[in-house]
Please model this.
Amino acid sequence: MTEEKRSKIPYFFFAFFLVVIAVNFAYIYISKKTWRGVTTEDSYQKGLNYNRAIQKVKTQEELGWNVRIDYNPTGMRKGTAVINLLDKNNQQVIGVDIHIKLKRPTQEGFDFVQPVTFANGVYKTDITFPLTGQWDFEVVAVKGQDVFQAAKRLVIQ
Model:
């Protein structure tokens, strides 16, 4: 009696799909272990408010204010932020409520808000960061009904 040779093709198909499934599980595992959780909260509502945001930008441009954000390190993860706010005529804007939203673009859970005080003709605040690395400085200045925002990304050592 002769023994029939069985085809190896079904085994190749089985091995192929086994490898595909194993690779997919590996990618899922890696993605869950390395995701830092950076997301946009309330993204749907922010999308709905887009036209309002465009109007705020136009209103801000009409103000003609100009801001300069300077950061001077004073130690490890410490420094002083100095805000220079000028109007259309390059005169310092006084009597403004300013705060800085400090956001870590690479990792969630470390964002905080730092109030800015006006003393000796300068808007400034001392900041202590929880981590070194990239930080977004979002300055929000409010004077009456006028709101001005500016942003700058810095690397903190």
Notes: The chain has three helices and seven strands. The domain at 43-156 is CATH 2.60.40.1940 (Immunoglobulin-like).
